[in-house]
Amino acid sequence: MGKHLNIAAKRFKLLRRELGLTQQAFAGQLGISNSTADIERGKSRISGEVVAVLFEHYHINPLWLFGKSEEKYLQAGEVQVMPKVVTLNSSENENIALVNAKASAGYAHNLQDPEWYETLPAFDLPLPEYRNATYRGFQVEGNSMYPVLHPGEWVIARAEEKLSDIRPGQVYVVVLQDTLVVKKIVRQQHRIQLISVNPDYPPIETRAEDIREIWRVVSKISGSLEPAPDTPLEHWAREIKEELKEIREHLR
Fold first, then answer.
1. Whose CA is closest to 62, among 79, 85, 36?
2. More exposed terminus of the chain, fewer Cβ within 10 Å: N or C?
3. 197 with 106, same domain?
4. Distance from CA of residue 2 to its chain's centroid?
5. Whole-prediction pTM value?
């Protein structure tokens, strides 16, 4: 039995006991037909629907439940953007699901459907920097983040828990009500701006409550070893350098 499933089972049981409920009574509150005994023994996974009910009724942090955070409760009123479903490999350890361009079209509509996630390819990345957190891979579409990200490349992104966790200047995968985008995020008083790197693409304005998940991009996978083209500023600096070189040679 894998480490993360054991943690989830133990914390699930701990929560039930803290609430003073029997397994049958807890199952009734969660809206599941069978008792919670199989979940507590680690024989059944905790579904996305159950995670959503635990959050809605008890403000339980899904990442705490799966051993990815020590923050058990989430504050009421804070915009929560953590994933409702995590994916596990055959050893019941968390892996990195890959959402390609085709799958991204249906991603926002399947956030709480564990069976849909099982259709996605996934892999393990046994590096220390990819442990103790939830990661997911997304394929880049379009040129809005060019030249930082190219169409067809993949980004590996780490799940954020709250909208207040976002950092200025970072690139994020932002899941909205019916789509997902890769952008930088600027928080304003009553609105959120999603900013492209490519100046040809205007900002997208949205409301905080319309954001369902946020993933902070930590690395990318590219199929090309070609160097990235210069940004306009780098191109201008290169031209100035060449002009100065020509002037020095002319003065000799």
1. 85
2. C
3. yes
4. 22
5. 0.68
